[in-house]
Amino acid sequence: MSVSSKRFLQVISSFVPDAATLADPTTPHLLLDGHEVLSVQGIPGVEVRADKDGEIAVAEIVVAPGAIVVPTIHTCIGFLQAREIQRLRIRVRIGEGASARLLAHCLFPNAEQAEHTMDAVVEVGANATLRYSEGHFHGPIGGIVVSPTLDVRVAEGAHYVSDFSLLQGGVGRLRIAQRIEVGANGVAEVTARVSARGHDDVRIEDELVLSGRASRGLVKTRVALADDARAAVIGITRGCAEGARGHMDCMELVRDRAVARAEPIVEVSHPLAKVTHEAAVGTVDQAQLETLLAHGLTPDEAIDLIVTGILR
Amino acid sequence: MSPLGAMERAAPLLEIDHVGFRADGRTILDGVDLTIGEREIVALVGANGTGKTTLARIVMGCSGYAPSSGSVRLRGQDLASLAIHERARLGITMAWQEPARIEGLRVHDYLSLGRAAFERVIPLAEALQRVGLAPDAYLDRMLDKTLSSGERKRIELASILAMRPALAILDDPAAGIDLASVEEIAQVIRDLREAGGSVLVITHVDAIAQIADRAAYLCGGRLVCTGDVREVVARYRARRCVVCDGEACR
Hints:
A: mainly beta, B: Rossmann fold, 9 helices
């Protein structure tokens, strides 16, 4: 293990609240520093594999059919260098009837001219459940381009819940692109929360395809912008089957000279499908602000509370 | 009954002195005089669009609601230069007609807000119980759109009760509340007074107006009369208005 990687392991403990659990042999995990695989650990019912394929790290997490995985599966991915490129290809498969929780920690605390690209394929088998959280921890400079691309397939009766958050440090340039296809009676709940400032640039593209009968989906986006930050949230929800129900809920809070854009697109190709959307882009709501001021909070305290609230 | 607010029976906590307000070239309020004594409940009645909420916002100091003329004083202190939060810290607070929903904020945390700015606070659970909400069911709820309008109104009242302000301005507190629960709202208003506070309550509900010590009737931006609640409400109902002769509030 390189000196850098040893330092990376030390850094994990300062960003990941329950880092001690990574040493627990019953906690499945994947630790990746740049393209170097630091540690993989599986448990019965959970296989974790990782390797390097040229300049790409390749990883796979497989939960066996029927396995109810109690411990959270952790992935810690990132690097400490100021200038670095990390490319990751990952496949997550949750077997039929299985249940798992996956927590991804993405650490780029020193990035100045860096890049992180992730291509992920996520398959949630029939009647399986996956709860996926991805938390990013960036340094103050935000000198990084982060480009996660996800192809998520939620099978019949399956339940997929995801929560992406980038709330600490400078965002840099964020490009999220994900496509989620939901089968019959399946459910997808997808949330992204981003706090951007300085010259951060955010683009989130979600495509939710409700292809199965009685499939349901919710795409929720919360972005708070300050200074000269920019954000565009493009959400497409397609209702393609009888009884499909989808909703997009986008809120972007703009302060200072920041610019936000929301483009909700609804497409319904079955007469018994229904898709709704709501988008709110603007500054801090005056009614919310005055309500808090009337409780004695200062304007700064009130704005902080409102911004923190929408990102919670 | 005293025309134009001459009769006052308690030492003034709040003095609204000849307040006028214009917006977009229109006169919304015209020379309104009203005082509220310590531990006094004053009901403000009048038809929709006569300036009741505007007057409430002026007292609270909301953005864009500085009076065009006149003054507002709390215990003799002119409030003109004070922002909302500074007025709140003097003991004034307000429950809006349609309380804002704030995403990501728990009811417990909302009820806890700003209590340091006020005196004589009461336990949060008790405040919820007084407005007819079970603490176990609501303290961990979010103050967002999952709450019904009636629930949100009750939580707003609970937050006012939890603070026990010197002056609570309640804008139509019974709107959206089921009929069977109006008495609970009335009792909250009485509780605010029993705790030493005063209340200016804007209402269209008779049962709320009747608990007031006095009522004031606003029409066409002018205060028509103040005095005995029954007489003022009767006059409002009869639309015997000295300002518009019933035309403006019909």
